[in-house]
Structure formats: C-alpha cells, structure tokens
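Treating backbone geometry as a discrete language has practical consequences that deserve illustration. No coordinates are needed to read the tokens, only the vocabulary itself. For completeness, the protein is quoted in full, as a sequence line and a line of structure tokens:
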Amino acid sequence: GDNYTSLGQMTEAERHFEEALVAYRAHLGEDHPSLAGVYLGLGRVARIRGDHEDAIASLERGIAMMRRAYGSESPALGSLYSELAVVFTSFGRFDEAEDYFPRILGFYKDDPGLALPYNRTLGNYGAMLWFAGRYEDAAVPQRELLRRYLASPDAPPVAVGIAEGNLASTLSSLGRHDES
C-alpha cells in the first residue's frame, strides 16, 4: 500500500491496505499491534483524499492498539501521532495538531537513529505554526531544524535549502527582512 500511496495511486493503495488488514486479522487477531501500521497507511490515504474523519478514525484505531500493547508514552506511537498531527494541520485544526508535536519530539530527540523522523517532525511543527499564523513560534522549530541540518555533514543540500527558505519566509512574515 505504501508504494501505491507514494505513486499517488490511492485506490490501489487502499485496496492493498484493506487486503493486508484481512490477512493480519486472520493470522494475528483483531487487536495485534502489527495492524497499527496498516491503519497508519489507511489514515494517510484518507488524508490525501481529503477525508479527515476517516483519516482520524483509522489513526485513532491504530493508536488505541499500540497503547494497549506498549503503553501511552511509547515511542512506537510516534509515526501514528505524527500522521494524526499532519491530518489536523491539513484541515486547519491547529490546536489539536499542536498537542501532539512536543510528545512526538520527545520520543525522537535523544536517539541518533531517529534523526530523520525528529527532523521531519520539527519541519511539520514549524509548518503547522506558520499556517496557524504564529510566525514567531514557527521560527523556533524552523531554526532548530536548520541548525541540525547545518551541523550534519550528511544533510541533503535540498533539505538545507528548504529549511533555509522556510525560515526566511517566516522571518519575512514577521517583517524581519534583514534576518531573512
């Protein structure tokens, strides 16, 4: 399903996720935490299609499974929380989105193996705050993301450029053109 999602073929993606759900349930049961990844995929497809209620329902189902299996503060919830925050942001529900970002960042912050999801979350957090019109607040995660990229010899140049552009746009929105 993920491959079809990345290709923009949502009907095929959804079909594959639904087939995976049937197979997982048959072999693992109705409440196995492995099903959470399928609900993550279904939630992403629903978000891309613009169906935020289905997206939220799928993601919350996956979150409930992971909480029962690993507890409510497990880093295993990071991907589901991240997608849910993106769903809320996509549909202008900024207060609900904001509730998740500090928790997600806390899951990833101290593990060098999780630098990519941490950086992606910083970018999403900055974007959510920017779309909410909270430019001063948006500059904080944007600066942190740029700092992390500039400190990493492995940072993709395009990611550095995007981070620089996002921060410049935010500073410009604040009228701080000399800093942008």
